[in-house]
Specification:
alpha+beta; six-stranded antiparallel sheet; 19 strands; EC 6.3.5.4; ATP-binding; glutamine amidotransferase; Asn_synth_AEB; Asn_synthase
Length: 621
């Protein structure tokens, strides 16, 4: 797990200014790789790498890594968990290896098979830059669901890329500007996932992005997308018994967790007490007997610590509590915003940073979590709500004709969307349509169409909602987890997002995901063999932090940069501050955005913002 940075010259050769920018970028990414660093360049390309040693900590595995011939170079961030199997195949084809690292396997596979053939074989989380001197092409890639990040910016004569936006912002000639459209969309609570940067001129490589850069320009492609791999007949024609599905899921989970436990360093789990993280903890114990877990224990509001300890006791794993009080929250909140590179709109951001820092302090470099389960196995209430919506006759009538449906959506697109910071409302029917097709939702509509043959329509809509969440809600979670775990130099792994598990889950029928009012039905059946029944049956609750943690901080908005950026009048600002005082969600978003602007545009420090938050909170008393 690492940080990568690069400069690609379109015309003139790499110069001293480019090499200086690589150094600046590496300094901005130091938290991602405190164990080692390296750089490499030729006439066209300069690469920088910060290393967090997880697999093969020897100097031989340092990066950027070159092939023995010197005509292939790799700068890589992530883990490809099936590297041992890939290595055996490559050795059978005559290739020799100098290290036992997954990095060298990735490099050899790319160089021997070519990126278009090799990348779909990688089972893991990764982003990388690979240069092939044989044809002068630079390849940038990201894993199929975007677990590991890659930011890109194209200037007049250069292409800049790095693991985080802040590394690109560190380059001496890159203009530091906020994208006003992104700022407005976020404040209006429009769905914006981690594929979009708030900084003008920076874009994010999409999940499964595979870009080829040559002197002729950029060829953008993707090597995987659910629309391309979804086999609707497998879902519609599924007649496997419940027991058969349970056996297969148990096997796939065990094999995935075993792969994710490969590390030449200490490993732990984030154990919240829920089904997902609890199941990962129970299975990981088999492969890492010394394993322990962590749970955040907020001193205000509801704590999951007791539930997590019940799981730990049941599976024989010690769970360590990570305390979080208001002072600690106000210390971590600005730092979370800095690392997220967006507003810290959810109080759990500070909690995850607290957990990651406790892991690092304990010498833990790898943390397993349960992200991805709700999206793959149907664990969210809003997914199930689509089934109820489809029982309404007017909706069934509308969707009998694709032309009629598309005309209705076109009408809604022409209607001003009244959502705002205060979350204004539209008619129930319009909101239902927006939820069902946020292309309004272009992707979700295409997914619904792709699932033709699945019946009844409610099942079809439910599965489309689950698949859409892989590209919306999950992207925010993965972005948050990468940025905040790597802020403390901790690698966060997500065993549910393993290639075979993804394929298995996306081809399950609705009845295996949602049955008898129970989400994640199949997964919970498997969990019954591993976890306390009380935890399995508990209602799903998102991680909650009490309103009191951020209470009073809305005063930071007075005289700040957000007001100037949005051109709010004094009366409008007063109204927004009053709203933030009474609504925690609005307070977190507004104050978080204010801190983002102060950190990146105003040059303030996280420490000074913590002091300002304390002062604002005191003034409200």
């Amino acid at each position: 797990m690492c940080g990568i940075a690069g400069v690609w010259r379109k015309r003139d050769p790499i110069g001293s200014g480019d090499l200086s920018d690589i150094e600046r970028m590496m300094q901005a990414l130091a938290h991602r790789g405190p164990d080692d660093h390296g750089n490499w360049n030729n006439a066209r390309l300069a690469l920088g790498h910060r290393r967090l040693t997880i697999i093969d900590p020897s100097p031989a595995a340092r990066e950027p890594m070159l092939t023995a011939s010197g005509d292939g170079a790799l700068c890589y961030n992530g883990e490809v968990y099936n590297f041992r199997a890939l290595r055996k195949t490559l050795e059978a084809e005559g290739l020799a290896f100098r290290t036992v690292s997954d990095t060298e396997v990735v490099l050899q596979a790319l160089h021997h098979w070519g990126p278009q053939e090799a990348v779909p074989l990688f089972d893991g989380m990764f982003s990388f830059a690979y240069f092939d001197a044989r044809d002068g092409a630079l390849w940038l890639a990201r894993d199929r669901l975007g677990i590991k990040p890659m930011s890109v910016a194209e200037t007049g004569d250069r292409l800049l890329f790095a693991s985080e936006d802040k590394a690109i912002l560190a380059c001496h000639d890159f203009p530091r500007r906020i994208d006003a459209r992104e700022l407005t969309l976020r404040l209006a609570w429009q769905s914006r996932d981690s594929s979009y940067s708030v900084f003008d001129g920076i874009e994010r490589l999409p999940p499964a992005g595979l870009w080829k850069i040559t002197l002729d320009g950029i060829e953008k492609r993707r090597f995987w997308h659910i629309l391309d791999v979804l086999e609707t007949p497998r879902i519609a024609g599924d007649n496997t018994s419940d027991a058969g599905h349970m056996t297969m899921l148990q096997t796939l989970l065990e094999e995935s967790v075993e792969l994710h436990c490969i590390a030449d360093t200490s490993l732990a789990t984030a154990c919240s007490g829920g089904v997902d993280s609890g199941l990962i903890t129970a299975l990981a114990k088999r492969f890492r007997p010394e394993l322990h877990g962590y749970v955040v224990d907020p001193k205000l509001g509801r704590s999951e610590a007791q539930d997590a300890e019940r799981t730990g006791c049941h599976v024989g794993v010690t769970v360590r509590r990570v305390p979080l009080d208001k002072d600690r929250f106000l210390e971590l909140w600005p730092r979370a915003v800095w690392h997220l590179e967006t507003d810290g709109w959810h109080a759990s951001h500070a909690a995850l940073l607290a957990l990651a820092e406790r892991c690092r302090a304990d010498g833990v470099k790898v943390l397993l979590t349960g992200e991805g389960s709700d999206e793959l196995f149907g664990g969210y209430k809003w997914q199930a709500s689509t089934i109820r919506l489809w029982r309404q006759s007017w909706l069934q009538h509308l969707f009998r004709s694709k032309a009629r449906r598309d005309r209705k959506f076109a009408e809604l697109r022409r209607t001003p969307f009244r959502n705002s910071i205060g979350r204004g409302s539209t008619s129930d029917r319009a909101m239902a349509l927006r939820a069902l097709s946020p292309e309004l939702n272009f992707l979700q509509t295409k997914l619904f169409d792709r699932l033709e043959g699945v019946t009844p329509p409610g099942d079809r809509a439910f599965l489309a909602a689950c698949f859409y969440d892989l590209y919306s809600h999950l992207q925010d979670l993965l972005h948050r987890h990468d940025r905040l775990s790597m802020a403390a130099s901790v690698e966060l792994r997500v065993p549910f997002l393993e290639n075979r598990l993804i394929d298995f889950a996306i081809h399950l029928p609705r009845r295996q995901k949602y049955r008898d009012g129970t989400g994640k039905w199949l997964l919970k059946k498997v969990a019954e063999h591993h976890l306390p029944r009380e935890n399995i049956r508990a209602a799903k609750n998102g991680f909650e932090i009490a309103d009191a943690f951020s209470a009073g901080t809305q005063g930071l908005l007075r005289g700040g940069l957000l007001r100037d950026a949005m051109k709010w009048s004094s009366s409008e600002l007063d109204d927004l501050i009053d709203m933030a005082r009474s609504q925690e969600t609005s307070r977190l978003r507004l104050v978080g955005m204010e801190m983002l602007l102060r950190l990146y545009m105003g040059g303030e420090t996280t420490g000074s913002l913590t002091e300002a938050l304390h002062a604002a909170a005191r003034s409200e008393k």
